Structure prediction request, 429 residues.
Amino acid sequence: MSDKKLHPVQSLQGTVRVPGDKSISHRALIVSAIADGACRVSGLSTALDVQSTAACLKALGVKINKAKDGVIVHGVGMHGLQPPRKALDAGNSGTTIRLLAGMLAAQNFTATITGDRSLRNRPMRRIIEPLELMGARIDSDDFKAPLTITGGPLRAIDFASPVASAQVKSCILLAGLFARGVTRVTEPYHSRDHTELMLQEMGANIHSSEALAAVIGPSELHARDIDVPGDISAAAFFLVAGALLPNSTLVMENIGVNLLRTGILTALTSMGVNYQINDQVELNREPRATIAVKSATFRATTLGGAMIPRIVDEIPILAIAATQAEGVTTIKDARELRVKESDRLAALAANLTKMGAKVREKEDGLIISGPTTLHGAELDSYNDHRIAMAFSIAALIADGETTIKNVDCVDISFPGFYDILESIIHDER
Ligand code: S3P
Prediction:
């Protein structure tokens, strides 16, 4: 496992292209796998998490071939998946295990799906309960992976999810494709809707609004080429970095700007950051655009409620930004961060404290006072890609050297992150 040493830099300049959106990439592979023919997925994320999804689908008998800028997925239809020879490995990926569980619940075979140590500690009761209500049997130890899923004919349910989670919602909608009748999911706040949009694109009978997502089954899916836009959750690190460093301008091309993912832009606006959005187009129902950002003076903000699902993966980098903002930034209603790839509230509080930030950890969030000068420190990545990347950006504005332990995890979502960072550093010293 490798460590990374980082130093302060003067400014950042340039044009950045980030990997394909991770959430949309998972869905493109999974939905195409059960469509009625072959389709091309271009712009597919190179993230290890997405490779985990591809490997699981291959183990279920789906052919996925490399193609220019992506893959060709040979859909096997709604009833063409084959029993896997051994346990499916979702690696570090919550999206892989939860979405595939929805599909496995409807198969006429038993399959086990598991993952790495972090994934085996993450909560699965949130999908086990609804899938069992639909008629699947799921064996687990204390509602944690490995999950052994015995599928079969499913019944449609009305499910009120206690958490705003696109993974839970997508799991149930994918199962609902196979159930006769209307499967409805409501959630406390609207989470990302990429599954709904992609299922619509492939001809499923699916309806969604802020309050409700509903699918009418059984459904057939028609193979359709998919172009995946760049990942705004990856771009977020550079958006914040470009605004934090003086004399900086960064341009990010082809970034997905689905309104349920652009909370980072709303949050940055409330913190006093200006950005421009140009060249917006829509493909496969997903909007994408060029975003340009330049240096700004940050002010404090409050982030909570319906905003949290829209910034759920961006809170680590927003916490770094908050240390440079004038005033007290409050992040609340963000308990879900405790059950991500790491306990992100604890990881953020520990690392920010080591860098000299003024931070208080609450049960459901963080309170950060600024501005404070950050000091270089020896930090842990907690084997969490977003913690590693957020603190790599913090290191650029800190005084002295920062070492981040175990940064290999960055490849979970953003292979090439450090090469891009290297290419935009401008330092005359
Ligand atoms: C994701 C949903 C979010 C997010 C994760 C990806 C998805 O998780 O944090 O990185 O692709 O559906 P939850 O749905 O559990 O909040």
User: Anything to note?
Assistant: The first strand starts at residue 4 and ends at 6. The pocket of shikimate-3-phosphate is lined by residues 23, 26, 94-95, 165-167, 170, 191-192, 312-313, 336 (CB under 6 Å).
